[in-house]
UniProtKB/TrEMBL annotation:
<dbReference type="GO" id="GO:0016747">
    <property type="term" value="F:acyltransferase activity, transferring groups other than amino-acyl groups"/>
</dbReference>
<comment type="similarity">
    <text>Belongs to the RNA methyltransferase TrmD family.</text>
</comment>
<dbReference type="GO" id="GO:0005829">
    <property type="term" value="C:cytosol"/>
</dbReference>
<dbReference type="GO" id="GO:0052906">
    <property type="term" value="F:tRNA (guanine(37)-N1)-methyltransferase activity"/>
</dbReference>
<dbReference type="InterPro" id="IPR029026">
    <property type="entry name" value="tRNA_m1G_MTases_N"/>
</dbReference>
<dbReference type="InterPro" id="IPR016009">
    <property type="entry name" value="tRNA_MeTrfase_TRMD/TRM10"/>
</dbReference>
<comment type="subunit">
    <text>Homodimer.</text>
</comment>
<protein>
    <recommendedName>
        <fullName>tRNA (guanine-N(1)-)-methyltransferase</fullName>
        <ecNumber>2.1.1.228</ecNumber>
    </recommendedName>
</protein>
<dbReference type="Pfam" id="PF01746">
    <property type="entry name" value="tRNA_m1G_MT"/>
</dbReference>
<keyword id="KW-0808">Transferase</keyword>
<dbReference type="InterPro" id="IPR000182">
    <property type="entry name" value="GNAT_dom"/>
</dbReference>
<dbReference type="GO" id="GO:0002939">
    <property type="term" value="P:tRNA N1-guanine methylation"/>
</dbReference>
<dbReference type="Pfam" id="PF00583">
    <property type="entry name" value="Acetyltransf_1"/>
</dbReference>
<feature type="binding site">
    <location>
        <position position="118"/>
    </location>
    <ligand>
        <name>S-adenosyl-L-methionine</name>
    </ligand>
</feature>
<keyword id="KW-0489">Methyltransferase</keyword>
<dbReference type="InterPro" id="IPR023148">
    <property type="entry name" value="tRNA_m1G_MeTrfase_C_sf"/>
</dbReference>
<keyword id="KW-0949">S-adenosyl-L-methionine</keyword>
Length: 418
């Protein structure tokens, strides 16, 4: 089952560029299905009205929730393994390469993205409120940057191209994706040259003509670092995208430090402090993490910023030991997202999202159908985050910390179609 992308707009012609270039070719080759829909097809009056005056007064018009609700209900695919509604808005989360990679993973696993392109003063806020409260749909507000456009169509075009080019088979040479700006190395791309070797008094750097691939790689790396330091120093100093990688034994001490600092933050307030400390000593020490890293049934990812570990995830592969979990997690093979923690000073910077995206990608590589996790029923912030990462509530379980038994929700995310 291939994924699909749908766009709802009052200007369907605006999306015509999706017929061109690599995205258009991907559509023709059957690598990606894209549907463009006229929002006015869901209106019921002869004027095909999609907007009205704002309650409370003010300038401009607001797009009606009844029209948008009918349109979204009509476009969302019932049997899709994941359904994500993307609302372009200046108030949304900043679009990044990590987000593009996350969305591409959803599409490649058969999921659906739906772009809700607003106009005028925007879409009635109840639309986002309604769909964010549903377990079968994830809604995300996204922004291209700190500026305002006339509508969401331009943003939809940008995001669709950023996602589509990451799908398998769309880019002819996959190495192009590895070396480009904002890739895995977190650097801007090095300068590139082609024929003629001399043009208007400017020569191609000699090293690129040498045939020495080792020197060429070193030169390109150095130029990428220089360019990034000059144009985007935030990426060098660690304020940009983190480096996400599989953990190594040498990381055990750093992971244990992060675990000890972050585990208490996820615990319910009534949990006795001595039970929290005892749990850390029994399960989250450097000795424990060295053992976890040797376990072939576990994957541990870390997020590094400026060379320091600031977050981690741990996935445990295999059948759930808890019968309550096994009963509600229906997809097989399955794996548990057992740990997902980021230091508080890095919250809101996209670190946790990048960790989950890499973790899901690794699980997908290992053949996992369904990823599941437990989250405390009182931890609404974490629940919102996991819903934004395509997890939906599937049931409940109990989690014991010392003498305290906590009530958890079991949340699942389907990584591949059955």
């Amino acid at each position: 089952m291939s994924g699909r992308i749908d766009v709802l707009t009052i200007f369907p012609g605006y999306l015509a560029p999706l017929e061109l270039s690599l995205v258009g070719k991907a559509r023709r080759d059957g690598l990606l299905e894209i549907g463009v829909h006229d929002l006015r097809d869901w209106t019921s009056d002869r004027h095909r009205t999609v907007d009205d005056t704002p309650f409370g007064g003010g300038a401009g018009m607001v797009m009606r929730p009844d029209v948008w609700g009918d349109a979204l209900d009509g476009v969302l695919v019932a049997d899709s393994p994941s359904r994500t509604v993307l609302v372009p808005t200046p108030a949304g989360d900043r679009m990044t390469q990590a987000m593009a990679e996350e969305l591409a993973l959803l599409v490649s696993a058969g999921g659906q993205l739906v772009f809700a392109c607003g106009r005028y003063e925007g879409i009635d806020a109840r639309v986002s409120e309604h769909y964010s409260g549903r377990d079968d749909v994830t809604i995300r507000e996204i922004s291209l940057g700190d500026y305002v456009l006339n509508g969401g169509e331009v943003a939809a075009l940008v995001v669709i191209e950023a996602v589509a080019r990451l799908l398998p088979g769309v880019i002819g040479n996959p190495e192009s994706l590895v070396e480009e700006s904002h890739g895995a190395a977190g650097l801007l791309e090095y300068p590139v040259y082609t024929k003629p070797p001399s043009w208007r008094g400017l020569d191609v750097p000699e090293v690129l003509l040498s045939g020495d691939h080792g020197r060429i790689r070193s030169w390109r790396r150095a130029r990428a670092v220089e360019r990034t330091a000059r144009r985007r120093p935030d990426l060098i100093t660690g304020q940009g995208s983190p480096e996400i990688r599989l953990a190594r034994p040498v990381d055990a001490e750093a992971i244990a430090d992060v675990a000890a600092r972050t585990f208490p933050l996820a615990c319910p307030p009534q949990l006795p402090a001595e039970d929290v400390l005892a749990f850390i000593e029994e399960h989250l020490t450097a000795v424990d993490f060295r053992r976890y890293l040797r376990d072939r049934n576990r994957d541990v990812h870390v997020a590094e910023v400026a060379g320091a570990v600031v977050g981690y995830t741990m996935t445990v592969h295999g059948e759930p030991a808890d019968p309550d979990v096994a009963a509600v997690v229906t997809g097989r093979p399955t794996a548990e997202l057992s740990k997902c923690y980021v230091l508080p000073e890095h919250h809101g910077a996209g670190v946790a999202r990048a960790l989950v995206a890499a973790t899901a990608a690794r699980a997908l590589e290992r053949g996992v159908h369904t990823l599941w996790l437990g989250v405390n029923q009182q931890n609404e912030r974490a629940q919102r985050f996991y819903r934004a990462c395509e997890f939906t509530r599937a049931g409940t379980k109990r989690f014991t910390v010392g003498t305290y038994r906590a009530d958890d929700y079991v949340m699942t995310r389907t990584l591949r179609p059955a």
